[in-house]
Design goal:
The chain is built from five helices and twelve strands. With 207 residues, the protein is an alpha+beta fold. It has one domain. The strands form four sheets. Strands 3-12-11-5-4 form a five-stranded mixed beta sheet. Strands 2-9-6 form a three-stranded antiparallel beta sheet, with no helix packed on it. The longest helix is centred in the N-terminal third of the chain and has 16 residues. It is globular, with a radius of gyration of 18 Å. It starts with 12 loop residues before the first strand and ends with a strand.
Length: 207
């Protein structure tokens, strides 16, 4: 599996609809959705079973595919026991069900070592771009508004664009001309095939 530092992309994820004009003028490319799961029929079948388990909130199945040394965050809290402590999958209201689903439905890509990363963002983002200064819009027709509120004038629609961020806090301060972007990070899951069985070796929640 590729080093987890590759997946620590602080400004990569779901961009909210409140985007300032300077951001619109800083479009630097496109990052279209991709899903390579069908390239490996065994993984495609595994993911379908996992999605069904998520729908049923089947904690037994979920725990059966979690690697004993799963990476849970960047702070070293790894392992199955920590996964249980963080997520409490035995609870139907656990956020693991919605957050893991959100990562899987965005598709994913196989890495060189044949591990599968979901969503596709985390091994598709151009390495030449600084992930601290750029973000990816993951939907079609995201409305760009001149003012940071839902009643602001729509000035453009963006679809699967990579944009350069202006920096600063996610707010508009008195006297400042720029309005800052709100960014919601996507969760990321890594799957590897070990001894003929697919397991989840990392599930890092968005920061």
């Amino acid at each position: 599996m590729r080093s987890l530092s590759k997946y620590k992309l602080p400004l990569l994820g779901l961009m909210m609809v409140l985007i300032s004009t300077p951001i619109v003028n800083a479009q630097v490319g496109k990052l279209y959705p991709v899903d390579e799961a069908a390239k490996d029929p065994t993984f495609f079948t595994f993911r379908a079973r996992l999605l069904k388990a998520i729908q049923k909130k089947d904690a037994s199945f979920l725990l059966s595919i979690v690697d004993p040394k799963i990476a849970n965050n960047f702070g070293g809290d790894d392992g199955l026991l920590q996964f249980k402590r963080i997520w409490h999958p035995e609870r139907p209201t656990s956020p693991v069900w919605t957050e893991l689903l959100a990562a899987l439905v965005l598709g994913g890509k196989f890495d060189k070592d044949q591990s599968f990363a979901a969503p596709y963002l985390f091994n598709s983002f151009p390495e030449a771009l600084d992930a601290f200064e750029h973000s990816a819009i993951i939907e079609d027709g995201v409305r760009v508004r001149r003012e940071p509120n839902t009643r602001g004038t729509v000035i453009r629609n963006l679809s699967f664009d990579i944009v350069k961020l202006g920096g600063g806090e996610n707010r508009r301060n008195p006297g400042e001309k720029r309005e800052w972007v709100l960014v919601e990070l996507a969760d990321r899951a890594i799957f590897e095939k070990k001894n003929g069985k697919w397991t989840m070796t990392a599930f890092i929640a968005g920061d």
